[in-house]
Amino acid sequence: MMGTDEETYLKMVALWSITGMPDLKSSMVGGVFKFTCAKGFIANMEATLFYNIEPIEVVRFLETAFEKQFGESALVYRKKLSGFKKNPFSSQN
């Protein structure tokens, strides 16, 4: 799916740019994305939701699910954005 669907590929690149969860992957089964990482299954997300929210919102969803699933904070995998001159998530840019 990701090799042929540009929108999905670009969304995943955005997720990988924000979080460094080890071996973060997604696969689409029916209309649901299944997210996994090196530790195992993280969560499912409806495809319509995946495409309609911003990458930072998907990451927050995954971080919350990761903490529930594995009992540790996924914030340690959040990438440092210190190279940006402005906050890339600020609506004031």
Properties at a glance:
3 strands; single chain; 93 residues; 3 helices; 3-stranded antiparallel β-sheet; alpha+beta
What would you note in describing this structure?
By secondary structure, the protein is of the alpha+beta class. The chain has one domain (6-77). The protein has helices at residues 6-18, 47-52, 55-70, and strands spanning 25-29, 32-37, 40-46. The protein has a three-stranded antiparallel sheet. The termini are far apart.
Mind sketching the topology for me?
Layout: H1 6-18, E1 25-29, E2 32-37, E3 40-46, H2 47-52, H3 55-70
Antiparallel strand pairs: 1-2, 2-3
Secondary-structure element series:
HEEEHH
User: Which secondary-structure class do the elements indicate?
Assistant: alpha+beta
Radius of gyration: 13 Å
Domains (count): 1
Q: What's the quick description here?
A:
The chain contains 3 helices and 3 strands; from the N terminus they run αβββαα.
